[in-house]
Automatic annotation (TrEMBL):
Name of this chain's protein: Stage V sporulation protein D (Sporulation-specific penicillin-binding protein)
Subcellular location: Membrane
Predominant subcellular localization, coarse grouping: membrane
Chain residue ranges for the region called Disordered: 1-21, 622-681
Biased composition (Acidic residues): 655-681
Species in which this protein is naturally found: Frisingicoccus caecimuris
Length: 681
């Protein structure tokens, strides 16, 4: 039986309901008070807004309207020019105009404006009036339709003359021409088309420089757009404010237009007569590191850089995939002188002998027996490395080793130098490291040179005559220039100064002495040895094709078999300088895979001689029948040629402000990082 006392009594539940009812009534009273307060606040706010609307609406309307942008347009900056060292413009930006139609204005102006506007556009801009009618019909509410782009000034001026004419009939006709205006922009143009194309580079949309100087100095060449604003002032007057565009800086290069033309003439001539996969030429001032000319082949027209028709048929281009077309364009755009690596061949021999002399591993009176080659262990077995003259030169002096380009003698010299010192001088000469030239895409070839773990006796021997490791043209000309200028390695560069539009110099690029390579005594001996390489009439002499009547020319030929060996593909080259007594100019010619007789090193040698024959008189370096010292005067490039570096009392060079260390002894690398290389700015 259930115990009733276990359940709560009903009077207790009634008591709880009373308490809940009492709590609810109190809460409703509080909510009512809050509601009344909010209602009063809203009424006051509405009243205030009504008062403002009735008494001050005009004032606030003017403030709002003054903040609105009624007429705003961008003012484009002018990209800076690229000039040669004498101020000749190589790249510039010319103002062009886009023809803009405003259909809304045409269709909503007083009078019948469609026909007069369409007829004016047809007459002055050559656009069929039916095209204009279609634009008006299809876009009646549009305020912006571009009908034509990149119109020149003369075309626009003819139309503006008509609109502003004082002739009565013209005024009557132009009164109903509405809704036409012009956007201004700049078009990048290159007055000399393909001249120095890979060095100058070009721009793509948005003033973005790519390749060459256009790419490297893009930020300096670009400016900042301005803007013109139209708005209503707080007095309801229409006002304009203009923020002027800031134009870009001009880049004045070290290139001499006339020397560049001379070089490109002979590069083109070789292409027409014999052909090659690639040809590169650099002309430099050995005393400063300035590049006076840089040309390569294949090349392209800077005003139409994507045009491949010079190298491919229409059918070939049409059948190219996107990747194939891109690769073809890159092959044309790439600067062979800076971006391609190759084995130097025998142009390396003077640098090897210079290292041996400075390390006292050989003397100028030493002789070597050339019996046609050396048998060397290559890590697997014995391999015979022949001299280029396989019958052997016999007893060969140190000078004749250069004159006759004797591989056998150089292998013996390399063995005397040893791995440690050979690698030391490779670093001194800058091999395996980018030079820091102010051009994009420079190959450093870090992975294509020897180090302590990869250079054995076989590699030591072959590297002595320039095989087994790769370098670039700009690396070689910088190293070679240090030999002919007395042992000073200057950073190669292609820009002389940055200027404002008015010509004020913002930044000058002086010569930068990076380090010293060889002693002056060694350099003097090497210069004379290379002079005899060109001047001597001996049966084995290799550089005679570079002779120029009346001048003392020095230089060295190079022939390097490409990898894989045995395919019959070669890189041939010549690097020379003049005059021997006071070198003012260095010329380096490299030909990759001549289409006929690929081992013919006389082709680059003759080209170098032809270039020097025209360049030397242009620089007012006059002939003296090959005897004595040449006189120089009146340099057309406004530069003091042949200036020797200033020296301290002990004969060490005084560096300019861009060089960090003031005293660099011969054969000493500025090596702050401890990795065997100098870091360039």
């Amino acid at each position: 039986m259930v115990n009733q006392n276990q359940f709560p009594k009903r009077p207790i539940r009634k008591k709880r309901r009373k308490q809940e009812k009492k709590f609810g009534n109190n809460n409703r009273k509080k909510l009512l008070i809050v509601f009344i307060v909010l209602l009063i606040f809203i009424c006051v706010l509405i009243g205030r807004l009504l008062y403002i609307n009735l008494s001050s609406s005009d004032t606030y309307a003017r403030i709002v309207m003054a903040q609105m942008d009624y007429d705003s347009k961008s003012i484009p900056f002018k990209r800076g020019d690229i000039k040669d060292r004498n101020g000749t413009v190589l790249a510039t930006s010319e103002k062009v105009y886009n023809l803009v139609l405003d259909p809304y204005v045409v269709l909503n102006s007083n009078g019948d404006c469609e026909k007069p506007t369409a007829e004016a556009i047809e007459e002055y801009f050559g656009i069929d009036k039916e095209t204009v009618y279609d634009a008006l019909d299809e876009n009646p509410d549009s305020r912006y339709i571009v009908l034509a782009k990149k119109l020149d000034y003369d075309t626009v001026k003819a139309y503006q003359d008509f609109m502003n004419s004082e002739d009565e009939q013209d005024q009557k006709d132009s009164a109903l021409v509405k809704g036409i205006w012009f956007e201004e922009e700049y078009l990048r143009q290159y007055p000399y088309d393909s001249l120095a194309a890979s060095l100058i580079g070009f721009t793509v949309s948005g003033n973005q420089g790519t390749w060459g100087l256009e790419g490297y100095y893009n930020d300096m060449l670009n400016g900042t757009n301005g803007r013109e604003y139209g708005y209503l002032s707080d007095e309801s007057d229409f006002e304009r404010t203009t923020v002027a565009a800031i134009n870009g800086y001009n880049v004045v290069s070290t290139i001499d237009l006339n020397i560049q033309r001379i070089v490109e003439k002979y590069v083109a001539q070789l292409g027409q007569e014999r052909g090659s996969k690639h040809t590169g030429v650099i002309v430099a001032n050995p005393n400063t590191g300035e590049i006076l000319a840089m040309a390569d082949s294949p090349t392209f027209n800077l005003n139409s850089p994507r045009d491949l028709s010079a190298y491919y048929s229409e059918e070939e281009i049409a059948n190219m995939s996107d990747e194939e077309e891109t690769n073809a364009l890159y092959d044309v755009w790439r600067n062979f002188c800076v971006s391609d690596t190759f084995e130097a061949g025998s142009t390396m021999k003077p640098l090897t002998i210079g290292a041996a002399l400075d390390e006292n591993k050989v003397s100028t009176g030493d002789s070597f027996l050339c019996d046609g080659g050396e048998d060397l262990f290559d890590g697997v077995g014995t391999q015979h490395i022949p001299c280029h003259y396989t019958y052997g030169h016999g007893t060969t002096t140190l000078q004749e080793a250069i004159m006759w380009s004797c591989n056998d003698a150089l292998m013996q010299i390399g063995n005397r130098i040893g791995t440690t010192d050979m690698l030391k001088y490779h670093r001194l000469y800058g091999f395996g490291r980018a030079t820091g030239i102010d051009l994009p895409g420079e190959a450093g070839a870090e992975s294509l040179v020897f180090n302590e773990s990869t250079m054995g006796s076989f590699e030591l021997a072959t590297s002595a005559f320039g095989q087994g490791f790769n370098l670039t043209m700009v690396q070689m000309i910088a190293a070679f220039s240090s030999i002919v200028n007395g042992g000073h390695y200057y950073q190669p560069h292609v820009v002389k100064e940055i200027t404002t539009e008015s010509g004020h110099v913002v930044k000058s690029f002086d010569k930068v002495l990076v380090r010293n390579t060889l002693s002056k005594e060694t350099c003097d001996w090497l210069k004379e040895a290379m002079h005899q390489t060109v001047a001597d009439d001996g049966v084995y002499t290799t550089g005679t094709a570079a002779r120029v009547d009346g001048y003392t020319i020095g230089g060295k030929t190079g022939t390097a078999e490409k990898v894989p060996r045995g395919t019959g593909k070669y890189v041939v080259s010549f690097i020379g300088f003049a005059p021997v007594e006071d070198p003012q100019v260095v010329v380096y010619v490299v030909i990759d895979e001549l289409q006929d007789n690929q081992e013919d090193s006389s082709a680059p040698t003759k080209m170098a001689g032809d270039i020097l024959k025209e360049v030397l008189p242009y620089l007012q370096i006059f002939p003296n029948n090959g005897e004595g010292s040449e006189e120089t005067s009146g340099d057309p490039g406004n530069y003091q040629w042949g200036a020797e570096p200033e020296t301290n009392e002990d004969g060490t060079p005084i560096e300019n402000e861009d060089t960090e260390d003031e005293d660099i002894e011969d054969n000493e690398i500025v090596d702050e990082a401890g990795d065997g290389y100098v870091e360039l700015e």
